Amino acid sequence: AQKVTQAQTEISVVEKEDVTLDCVYETRDTTYYLFWYKQPPSGELVFLIRRNSFDEQNEISGRYSWNFQKSTSSFNFTITASQVVDSAVYFCALSEGGGTSYGKLTFGQGTILTVHP
Amino acid sequence: EAQVTQNPRYLITVTGKKLTVTCSQNMNHEYMSWYRQDPGLGLRQIYYSMNVEVTDKGDVPEGYKVSRKEKRNFPLILESPSPNQTSLYFCASSLRGGLIYNEQFFGPGTRLTVL
Q: Number of Cβ pairs closer than 8 Å across A and B?
């Protein structure tokens, strides 16, 4: 069975600090996708990134970067020079390929990030 | 505009009063699903549908029903709501299920309170 763990329930930082959100996953599949979503106070889910299990290259998008390590089953997310607008709940999610999962996303518990001015 | 819509966005009701949350997508997607979001638990899948007239239970189906009579609509039915169904509900759709790449499009969410 697939499982995603975000051990950090809440993180509080001051603006311009760097912050890393941890994500550890479990799956028996060799083919899977990992995702990060942002949920701002308004409540909608905002897609941030998708990474497949065969691509371990780190990715950078502006102030956001992701570090995927299959050896430790981790897919961590770093925000550089955080801003108040980054305050949100962040979810890591896993989707296994085919089988009985039928496209289901398994989410972690979420990490509440608060960035103080 | 490609989107998933949910109605209502906010609902306060009382225990036992049947309600339906509608979900509609305009992308001709085959796969649709419902999730509920609770603090400390993330989002959990309630039901999903691979296509018209094909539905199946997710991880937390108790107390819910769904139907898929048309491709675009996937309503969530609470026959006798209880306070433990107070939650934030999301509908999602994707082109089809069972494939490796599943880009899920999420609706805006429905915040339900059962008193």
A: 70
